[in-house]
């Protein structure tokens, strides 16, 4: 059961990251007619990498804070 919850949480995190980074880095280009089949421009690629890295780092930090608070509440 715990593994299922963890897999679901990871899937949810990936979906949120995908949406957020898409909106930030690609949505305007798609709206302007850029074809999905094209490769990302250098700037789009850099934006996606930076966005995903920042999102994951933020999620890790939030997780650390929750763990610290849970440990403090358990003491």
Describe the structure.
By secondary structure, this protein is an all-alpha fold. The protein is built from three helices and no strands. The protein has helices at 2-25, 27-31, 42-74. The longest helix is centred in the C-terminal third of the chain and has 33 residues, at 42-74. The radius of gyration is 17 Å and the shape is elongated. The mean pLDDT is 90.
Give structural attributes.
75 residues, mainly alpha, 3 helices, elongated
The percentage helix is over 70%
Helix vs. strand class: mainly alpha
Show unreliable segments.
none
- What is the number of helical segments per DSSP (H or I, 4+ residues)? 3
Return the string of H and E elements: HHH
Strand content: under 5%
Main beta-sheet annotation = none
Number of beta-strand segments: 0
For the termini, the CA-CA separation is: 26 Å
Mean pLDDT: 90
Rg from C-alpha positions? 17 Å
The global form is elongated
């Amino acid at each position: 059961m715990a593994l299922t919850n963890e897999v679901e949480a990871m899937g949810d995190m990936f979906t949120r990251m995908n949406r957020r980074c898409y909106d930030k880095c690609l949505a305007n280009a798609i709206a302007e007619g850029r074809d999905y089949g094209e490769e990302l421009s250098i700037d789009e690629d850099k934006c996606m990498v930076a966005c995903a890295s920042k999102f994951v780092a933020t999620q890790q930090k939030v997780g650390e804070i929750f763990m610290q608070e849970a440990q403090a509440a358990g003491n």
